[in-house]
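User: Hey, my collaborator sent me this sequence without any context and asked if I could get a structure. I don't really work with proteins. Can you help?
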Amino acid sequence: MKNSWVLFVVLTFMSVASFSQTPKADSLYKVLPKEIGDTRFLVLEALYCEIVNRDLDKAKEINDLRQADALLLKDTFKICEGYIEYASIYKRESDYIKSNEMLDRALAIAERHHFDKKLKFIYNLLQANYINLGKYDLALEYCFKSLEARKVEGNMRDISIAYNNLGYVYSVLRDKRKALQYYKKSARIKEENKVEWGLVIAYVNISQLYSEFSELDSARYYASLAEKYCEGKNCIPKDLWTIQTALVEFYLATDSLTKAETVIVNAMKVAKDKNLTEEILDTYVYQAQLELAKGDAEKALFYWSKAYEMANASSNLLSMLDILDGYVEAYRMKNDFKQVSDYLQRSRDLEKKLFSGPMIQNVAQITLAHAENESKEVIGTQKELLSLKEISIQQQKTINIIVVVLFIFLVVIAILLWLRIRDKSMINQHLNHRVQQRTLELNIRNDELNRQALERQAMLDKLNRELSASMATLSGLIQTADKEVANPTMTRQYLRLMGSETKKVRSLSGLFKKDRDTHELVDQAS
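Assistant: No problem. I've predicted the 3D structure and written it out in C-alpha cell form, which is a compact way to encode the shape of the chain:
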C-alpha cells in the first residue's frame, strides 16, 4: 500500500515536471523509499531528471545511488543506463575522456547483452566526444556504427539524424561535397517520412555549404525553405538562430553587407537572450567576417579576440582554427606581416594537430570500408531486385499468356458472333428478297384478277343488256301471242320464237353462274 502511494506521487511529479520547471526535488526526497526495489529506482530516476539540468554535482550523487541499487539488483540494463548518464554528465562538464570511459563500459554491456536500443545513444555520445577531442577518424567510425544500428531498427527519424551527423563530421574534415551529400540525404528522408525534428538544421546546413560553393541560388532556396518551415510555428531559439546564420553566410557571399549586419545583430540578440554559448561564439566569428568584408581590420580583430577567448575557454579547437585564419586575414589587411606569419604558423600547427596524416589515412580507410559495405548492400539489394524482377517477369509472362489466350478466345467468339450475324443478315436478305418476289407475284396476280374482274363486269353488263332485251322480247311475244292465240299458225310460230328466246335466256343464265364463280375467285385472291 505504501509503495502504491509512493508510485502515485512519483508519477504525479513526473507528469507535472513535463509541463513545469518548478523544482520538486525536496518532495521527491521525502517519498524516497529506503528499501531497494523498483519503486526506489523510479523515485531516483525522477530525482535525477529533476536535478540534472540545474546541478550536475547533485545529479552525479543521485546517479551514484541509482548505480549502486542497479549493481545490488544485478540489473544489467539499469547498470548500462547508469554509465550512459555518467557519460552525459562528464560530457556537459567537457571532461570528454572521462565521458568516454563511462561509454566504453556501457558499450561493453550493451553489446554483450544485445541492448540494441541503447547502442545508438552510446555511439552518438562517442562520436560527439571524439569530435570535441579532435579524433575525427574515431568520430566518423562511430557515426557509421550509429547509422548501421539505426538502419537495423528501421526508424527513419533516427536514420536521418545519423546522416546529418555524418554530414557534420565530413564538414569538420573539410570534405564539403561529401558533407553536402549526407546533409541532403538527411533532409530527403525527413521530407519523405514527414519528420519535422531537425529539418530546419538540415536545410540550414545545406544552405551554408552552397554559400561556400558560391552556388547562391541553391543557398537562398534552402535558406527560404528553413524560413518557410518556421513561419507560423514556435521554432526553438536555436532553430531561429541557425536560420539567421544561413542568411548571414548568403548575404556575405553576395556582398549584401547591410543585410548581413542586420541579421547578425538579430542572431546575437537571440543567442545572448537564451545564453547559447556556442552560438554566441559563432556569431562573434560572423561579426569579424563582416568587418573583414567591410575592410575594417581593427573591428575584425576586436571580434576575433572575443571569439578566441570563448573558443579557448571551451577548448573548441575547430573554432580556434577558423579564428586563427581570421587573424591572418585581418593582419594581412593591416600589412602587419610579422603577425601574419605568427598566426599563420599557429594555424598550420593546429591544423596538423587536428588533421594529422595517420588520422586522415584512417578517415580514408573508414570511408572506403563504409563505401564497400554500401556497395555490398547495393549489390545485395540489386540481387534481391533482380530476383524479384525475374519473378515479376515470370508472372508477367504467365499474365501475357493468359491475356493472349483470352484475346484469342475473344477473337474466336467475335468471329463466331460475326459469322452468326452475317448468316442472319443473309437469311434476312434472302427472306426479304423472297417476300418482295412473292409480293410482286401477288401484285401481278391481283392486277390480273382485277383485269379479269373488269372484263367479267363488262361482259356481265353486256349480258344484262342482252337478257333485258330477251326478256323484253319474251314479254312482247307473250303479249302478241295472247292476242293471236286464235291463229294456230301464228301461235306455233310465236311458240318457236319463245322457245328460241328461252334457250337464249338459259344460255345467258349459265353465263351468270360462271360469272359468280369468277367473283368468288377474285374474293379469295384479295
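In plain terms: The chain has 20 helices and no strands. You can pass these C-alpha cells on to your collaborator as they are.
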